[in-house]
Design goal:
Distance between the termini of chain B: 89 Å
Strand content of chain A: 15-25%
Order of helices and strands of chain A: HHEEEHEEHEHHHHHEHEHEEHHH
Largest sheet of chain A: 6 strands, mixed
Structural class of chain B: mainly alpha
Strand content of chain B: under 5%
Number of strands of chain A: 10
Strand order of the largest sheet of chain A: 6-7-8-3-9-10
Radius of gyration of chain B: 27 Å
Helix content of chain A: 40-55%
Oligomer: heterodimer
């Protein structure tokens, strides 16, 4: 009990630059950063999953989100993409508060994400999954699309041909050509991950949330993932926020790192700074100091 | 006093609902299966009981399988088998009925449900709906379908207390229901077996690791649930007017599920209270003395209880009170990959391999492009020419085929494409059919205007029932649509305003034969099929599929689930409405008996057998379930249940083994051949043989350094 209180005490003060003043300021001037998570909190029953999380991402950056299991990383992603409603706080993206937007609207604002357990459409082919990701680009109303689609109007046929061409291009460029007619359920994990990246490419988001892109793929593939993500950034001109457990990968490609533990931001800064941070080390290795005290 | 008496009467009716609901909750709690067959099992038990105790004793007849098998003798041995059930004393009959239902439960578990572990909610719903149809069909065939008066097992007394009257049968049923709720609750909470059952329901794998025999636990749950169903059915008949009647008993499925819904399908006490609440709500609503006018007209017909049930379900599902939905877990992905993921060679792969060995596959695939046109032209000529050259009978049959195809298509769009289960396809069709009667006779509109309007009638109804679907998945949605279907069947379609104006005016067609109506139907059917075919290639269909496979991924791609689900409901309602219109023109007279919830459930099984995920499945349905039965059926006395029995059985098998259905078989059989497939065949053989690692290794090797390659490709493309 005692070590928990002791650990949380310094952590509350960790996001320096006056945490009391920050949320108010953010509310008044949301334009300050390209993307900003402002004092987001979330409870699941008695568990405080996210507690006053604050950090920001600037345009064009790759920001890595690290933390031990149960730190609230994926939950934070779910809050950002709208699958959980936070108890308090704001998420500013290009001057819009995402918390107030419905989940699917966030994709229209330029948010794209992948999931921890790659859950693409099991009963769709790779090509169709990529085409589905072009949904936002195609635009247009649902009812209008239905009527035009059923009548086979030239306009909708043209749009479909265009999407087909584009999707094939993306699939080919990621070297997935052979897999295009395969069902997503038939793919191996690595191929599925790559297909997910293909859908991201097709969505053309401005801010990409990647949840453990390296999980479940082989080591030599992980090594290639870093350059691939950098290429993706060049290609899309997008900003990246990624969760990753593979330290060489995330430290190698991130411009900045945010370390999360037990729903708090432990540290934030350049990769080498965060790596050197004592609290981060402790969070990862798990209260070594406390253990020694107990033994003594 | 009037209201107090109504309240008490309603509470006692509610106790009956609670009895059924308790069984449903018990099975769900123990196995996570929403058992739509619960009522059917109870019905069988009740029939066994009364036929051996004091009911009329018809000879048991096995009339099913009355198909003309080519070259087989006209009379098979089973049509001679008609034993008379034995006459037993009360206790003996009761024990026999319970033993039969326990056996039924065990057989269901062993033969079907054991292979459904890990299946999606939709799969479980379709499977139990299939069981419902299978069991009901068998029971109707075996016992007499006509309803009869039977004596109560409870001696009747009337007690008076403060001006209120209480019947002994009511009191006993209420006490038993309450006792069961408490006893079952205690069983699940305090006994080792009860805890083991709950653990198995939560996680079968973990329970097995802890040494629980999961299969035996499931078997016990099904046996108990079935015995409970029989007991409830017997008590319900005894408490009511002593009417042993199939329709009345199967209709109890709705209030039973509604009661269980109040307990979130988990809480037994909640189920009991929910049953009471529903009974009271119905009694009070019926008791309202409406002033003369509109409300008096619409609420004086039969079926008001079903209407109240529907309203209660919708209200609860729309407001989602915390006390009900506290423990409810909403399943994330629905999907139509019903059962477990298929592994190894599928049947069509075996056929392909066999054909390939004989060198026939290449030929077949090469000629299939031409072949399909030849086939399509042949079907078109047959469909168009038959009514000209034959008697009116065949155009009626073909007209019915059109109706089946359209209903199946409406299910394909909604359930197969969008993953939203709906048991109310015939409600929209019924609305369209009554619409065709009103529009053609009252408004004197020509058929080519009436037909699209019939479709438009289905749209608002479908959207209305789609609204609860926005926040619900799986069997809450199934329940809402079932409630809607039953309410339409019993209440809406029996409104005097509709039943007195149910003639369809065909005078626009000059000759009043069924042929012109048939051509009208087939024209609109063709239009709808082409439209849906076009739609299948657009972003709208992709959005439907995305919502079906993973709603979260769809949302993260910017697809509005609300809009597209409602759109799918609207489209499904439109298609079913057109089907109703064609039904009206073909049959001239629209009656509610053509749009029952039983038939609506049957259509779900038809669609699944034919292949619910594919549009061609809708084309297969009329071939399998109208054309072939018409050709092979032999005239029998009474209702021929063979089709329902077969459909129920095949639907469960399809969910377990082959969710692609017949259409999926054909599509996959005739898909283009890829050389890697031959490799897969050999590796599959290898995997089946001594070295399973070989297949894994080849799969690994099959995947070159994708990410390295992709990074390079991107770089090259950019430079």
């Amino acid at each position: 009990m005692s070590n928990r209180t002791r650990r949380t005490e310094p952590l509350r003060a960790a996001p320096d630059a006056g945490p009391e003043a920050a949320p108010e300021a953010a509310r008044q001037e949301p334009q300050e950063h390209y993307f900003e998570v402002a004092s987001i909190s979330l409870r699941f029953g008695g568990l405080q999953v996210l507690d006053d999380v604050n950090f920001h991402v600037d345009k064009g950056e790759i920001v890595g989100l690290i933390g031990p299991n149960g730190a609230g990383k994926t939950t934070l992603f779910d809050v950002i993409s709208g699958f959980h409603r936070p108890a308090g706080g704001h998420i500013w993206f290009k001057g819009v508060d995402l918390v107030e937007e419905r989940p699917f609207r966030r994709a229209w604002l330029g948010l794209g994400r992948t999931f921890q357990t790659a859950r693409l459409f099991q009963n769709e082919t790779v090509l169709d999954a990529v085409k589905t990701a072009c949904h936002r680009r195609m635009g247009g109303g649902a009812v209008k699309g239905l009527v035009q689609g059923m009548l086979g109007s030239p306009k909708s046929m043209k749009a479909e041909a265009e999407v087909d061409r584009r999707a094939r291009e993306i699939v080919d460029r990621l070297g997935l050509g052979d897999y295009a007619p395969k069902m997503c359920s038939e793919l191996s994990y690595g191929t599925l991950r790559l297909t997910e990246l293909a859908t991201i490419l097709a969505m053309e988001p401005e801010l990409v949330l990647l949840d453990e892109p390296s999980s479940g793929i082989a080591q030599r593939e992980t090594e290639a993932l870093g350059p691939l993500l950098l290429e993706l950034r060049e290609e899309l001109g997008a900003t990246f926020l990624l969760i990753e457990h593979d330290m060489p990968l995330i430290m190698g490609i991130s411009d900045r790192i945010v370390a999360l533990a037990a729903g708090h931001v432990l540290a934030e800064g350049r990769p080498e700074e965060v790596q050197a941070n004592d609290q981060v080390v402790e969070a990862y290795l798990g209260g070594r100091v406390d253990l020694e005290e107990v033994v003594a | 006093m009037y209201w107090a008496q109504l309240f008490v009467a309603g509470a006692f009716v509610g106790a009956v609902y609670a009895l059924y609901g308790l069984g449903i909750t018990m099975v769900y709690k123990a196995t996570r299966v929403p058992n739509f067959a619960h009522g059917a099992i109870g019905t069988v038990g009740a029939f066994v009981f009364y036929k051996t105790w004091k009911g009329s004793q018809p000879r048991l007849q096995v009339k099913h399988l009355h198909f003309q098998i080519p070259f087989a003798p006209a009379k098979e041995w089973w049509s001679h088998w008609d034993p008379t059930p034995p006459r037993l004393p009360l206790l003996g009959a009761l024990l026999l009925a319970i033993a039969v239902s326990i056996l039924l439960g065990v057989v269901i578990e062993r033969v079907f449900m054991r292979y459904m572990v890990g299946a999606s909610t939709i799969g479980l719903i379709v499977a139990t709906v299939g069981l419902f149809i299978l069991i009901t069909g068998l029971a109707i065939d075996l016992f007499n379908q006509q309803s009869e008066q039977v004596p109560s097992i409870i001696p009747e007394h009337v007690y008076k207390l403060g001006g209120l009257r209480f019947f002994s049968s009511d009191l006993i049923v209420a006490v038993i229901a309450l006792g069961l709720a408490v006893a079952l609750g205690a069983f699940f909470r305090y006994t080792g077996l009860g805890i083991a059952i709950r653990a198995t329901a939560d996680s079968r794998e973990t329970a097995r690791l802890l040494g629980i025999n999961a299969n035996r636990v499931a078997q016990f749950s099904w046996a108990t649930g079935s015995a409970l169903a029989t007991l409830s059915a017997i008590l319900i008949i005894s408490r009511g007017n002593g009417n042993l009647d199939f329709t009345a008993l199967t209709l109890l499925i709705l209030p039973g599920f509604t009661a269980a819904m109040f307990g979130g399908f988990i809480s037994l006490v909640g189920t009991f209270l929910g049953g009471l609440a529903l009974g009271v709500a119905e009694a009070l609503f019926i008791g309202i003395r409406w002033p003369d006018g509109f409300f008096r007209d619409i609420f004086s017909s039969a079926g008001v209880p079903q209407f109240v049930s529907f309203m209660v379900v919708v209200l609860v599902l729309m407001t989602r009170p915390k006390f009900i939905f506290k423990g409810v877990r909403v399943d994330e992905d629905s999907g139509v990959g019903f059962g477990r993921a298929a592994s190894g060679l599928q049947p069509e792969d075996r056929v392909r391999r066999a054909l390939d060995r004989r060198g026939a596959l290449t030929l077949l695939l090469r000629d299939w492009t031409t072949g399909r046109w030849v086939l399509a032209t042949g079907v078109a000529i047959a469909a168009l020419a038959t009514p000209i050259f034959t008697v009116s009978y065949w155009s009626t049959v073909f007209g019915s085929a059109v109706f089946f195809a359209l209903i199946a298509l409406s299910i394909v769009v909604l359930t197969g494409w969008t993953g939203q289960i709906s048991l109310a396809a015939l409600a929209f069709a019924g609305a369209g059919a009554f619409g065709s009667a009103l529009l053609s006779t009252q408004a004197h509109l020509p058929p080519y205007i009436v037909m699209p309007l019939c479709g438009l009638i289905g749209v608002p109804l479908a959207v209305l029932i789609g609204v609860p679907a926005l926040r619900l998945r799986g069997f809450f949605l199934a329940l809402a649509t079932l409630a809607f279907m039953v309410a339409c069947e019993s209440w809406l379609f029996t409104q005097p305003a509709l039943t007195t104006r149910n003639d369809v005016d065909r005078s626009f067609m000059r000759v009043d034969l069924s042929q012109p109506a048939y051509y009208l139907s087939i024209f609109f059917c063709l239009l709808v099929f082409l439209g849906v075919r076009n739609l299948g290639k657009t972003r709208i269909a992709r959005a439907f599929h995305a919502i079906r496979d993973s709603e979260n991924t769809a949302v993260s791609m910017g697809i509005d689930p609300v809009k597209y689900k409602l759109l799918a409901f609207a489209l499904s309602g439109f298609i079913a409405g057109i089907a109703g219109g064609s039904f009206g023109y073909m049959n001239l007279k629209v009656v509610s008996g053509s749009f029952t919830f039983f038939l609506s459930l049957t259509f779900i099984t038809y669609a699944v057998i034919a292949g619910v995920a594919l549009q061609s499945g809708a084309f297969v349905v009329p071939i399998l379930f109208v054309i072939i039965p018409t050709i092979t059926a032999r005239t029998t006395t009474g209702t021929n249940q063979s089709l329902f029995i077969l459909a129920g059985y095949l639907a469960v098998r399809a969910v377990i083994d082959y969710p692609n259905g017949v259409a999926g078989f054909w599509t996959r059989l005739l898909r283009p051949f890829s050389p890697s497939e031959r490799v897969a065949w050999t590796t599959d053989q290898a995997a089946a043989g001594p070295a399973p690692e070989a297949a894994a290794a080849s799969a690994e090797a099959d995947e070159p350094e994708l990410f390295v390659h992709a990074a390079e490709e991107l770089e090259v493309a950019r430079v």
